[in-house]
Amino acid sequence: MNRKRRLTDSLVNIWMRGGLYIILAIPVFIGIGLYWKAAPLLNEHSLTDLIFSSKWFPMKGEFGFLPFIFSSVYVTLLAFILSAPLCLFAAIYLTQFSKRRLLNFMLPVIDILAGIPSVVYGVWGILVIVPLVSGSIAPFFGATSSGYSLLAGGIVLAVMCIPYMLNMLIEVFHTIPVGMKEASLSLGATHWEMVKHVIIRKGFPGIISAFGLGIAKAFGETIAVLMVVGNTLNITLSPFKAGYPLPALIANNYGEMMSIPDYDSALMFAALLLFVVILIINLFFRYFIHKTEKI
Amino acid sequence: MKQMAFTYQSGLSSESVTLQNKIEMAEEIKDTSVISIKNLNVKTKDGDILKNINLQIPKNKIIVLLGPSGCGKTTLLKSLNRLTDLHKELKVSGQIIIDGQDIMKAGQNLSAMRQRMGLLSQRPFPLPASIYKNVAYGLKLKGIRSKKLIAHSVETNLKRVGLWNEVKDRLKSPATSLSIGQQQRLCLARGLAVKPTIILADEPTSALDPISTKIIENLFKDLKQHYTIILVTHVLRQALRLADHVVFMYYGEIIEQGHPDDILKNPKTAILKKYLVDGN
After folding, report:
1. Which residues of B touch A (CB under 8 A)?
2. Domains held by chain B: number
3. How far apart, in whole angstroms, are the C-alpha atoms of residue B35 and residue B58?
4. Which of these, A32, A152, A222, B199, could form a disulfide with B118 (CB 3.0-4.6 Å)?
5. Mean pLDDT, to the nearest integer, of A54-83?
6. Model ipTM value
7. Has residue A91 been placed in a domain?
């Protein structure tokens, strides 16, 4: 009996460790695979040229990724600026001010938002956001736009990020002990002062984590953005102009024009860039969380 | 409800107190009482937590709320500074008169009212900030901006709780870096800094080792010269050591109250007798 229990123990241990190693190996293998496929392009061009050049002429063998990187960063930042404050204050309201009933109503709504396929968000973007940008928002700012723009991409992305960020922020604020809130209130804090000094401060690592998740999600989102962003090479600060983010480049072109030398490698390099940027974003936020958790 | 007349007088047994004496003492306490609770009820949709509580709490004494878990001691304590407002499922009715003001009335300045009552929880909850900022927090909320005044108050109150020598070289360290016992004393210093008149202590030593417990108990004995302390505890010996007045609660009601010698050594009700036998 003891031998059987020990054997079961060992097997479960091996299973758990094995699972962990497989999970750890996945990103390593993805990174190696992408690098391997992108290597031909990296052998012919310097990394600086690939990242900082804006010349994209695959037929001539020129692969400047700057417009794609710029569009990706622009759309992601826009989505973050639009969604982060909204999620933060909604989560604070739901967990600290509203009645439990409202939170119970909102949780399934958030889950539904998270479960909607991105293509549906894309269609919604084409039907609602694109006309809104071309017909109302751009004219309001004295600009003209087809509507297929960085702003449309940012808005659609922001809506897509909301359920993920909001859900995580609600979880974060729920973990803060009631005793800590009571301590703050009993020292004479108003409800808002308690939120400011205790909830936000104590939840800060979690807030950063939620924002990091949102940014990583926004940076890698493909289909919905591709449908509304215009897919035109541009480096412009105007949100009403079209852009062309990295995921859209890959999704639009993979499997096409493969006869062009190095085109396949270029798309793999775009994927590698995405992978590395998301890795850096995550590492940065991890570091930030580690620093702020010590408070 | 078996609400008893309040019979506090040091060293006096219940037998020797005549009805007239009782009335006189009750009147006296009414005059010196800092808190007067009248017909306090706290309910949820599932039932009553506190049932028709009537209690006079005298000034500069340690009042111990005693009773089994779930009898409503903590709810009663939290009703006193209206922390029950945080729990929207609770319906609170009745009067709590503190220094002549009914704090249950709408439009009360809750911040000012709560600053008059320091709160010490079962386990310490230091704010997510440094040791210094924890003590300074309440002062800043009070509108005190002078760095000199704040620094002086931080030092004075950390000294009062016997923590100054242990932390004076690391005031900027996170409060969570302190041991649990030190954190509890820090929370007490933080509460004292805002100059309350009442200290609400909800089993403040339940998470502490015997040495830290003794430090807190001694502090309470010193502090009662200037503060009214309302202490929730399960520990009968602690009640005996500290209490000037014991209130025994059971299922949301006050069953008996009086001097600890009367209550803990000569209980009148079967419930309290059983509680004391089981507790010992």
Report:
1. 78, 81, 83, 86, 88-89, 110-112, 114-115, 117-119, 121-123, 125-129, 137-138, 141-142, 174, 176, 187, 190-191, 194, 200
2. 1
3. 7
4. B199
5. 93
6. 0.82
7. yes
